[in-house]
Specification:
Layout lengths: L4 H8 L7 H14 L1 H10 L5 H14 L5 H7 L5 H19 L3
Helix pairs in contact: 1-3, 2-4, 3-4, 4-6, 5-6
């Protein structure tokens, strides 16, 4: 799936859809996009919309790229406890992916 950062940013802006199925579908697409989605997802960790921040952290955890670790660690300072938990979960997933043999 060939997409640039502008296309990815458009998908990310819809991670706050009230329909969980839509959010999950977009998350699945972003995971399939993989590497090109990482920088826009990292930017989304600072979005004003909590839902977008939460989903960005979740997707980064699913992608599992270590490039996201430092921004996710920074997210642990966020004022929202649920977002901090989501960031911690994503960090754990990334670390686990790095230690499990393929």
């Amino acid at each position: 799936m060939e997409m640039d950062e502008k296309d990815v940013a458009g998908l990310i802006e819809n991670l706050n859809d009230p329909d969980w199925d839509v959010r999950n579908y977009i998350a699945d697409i972003l995971v399939k996009i993989g590497e090109p989605a990482i920088n826009p997802l990292i930017k989304a960790l600072k979005n004003d919309d909590l839902d977008i921040r939460m989903e960005a952290a979740r997707v980064l955890g699913r992608i599992g790229n270590k490039k996201a670790l430092t921004p996710l660690i920074g997210a642990l300072k966020d004022e929202d406890v649920n977002f901090r938990k989501q960031a911690a979960s994503a960090i754990n997933k990334i670390i686990d992916k790095g230690t499990v043999p393929k």
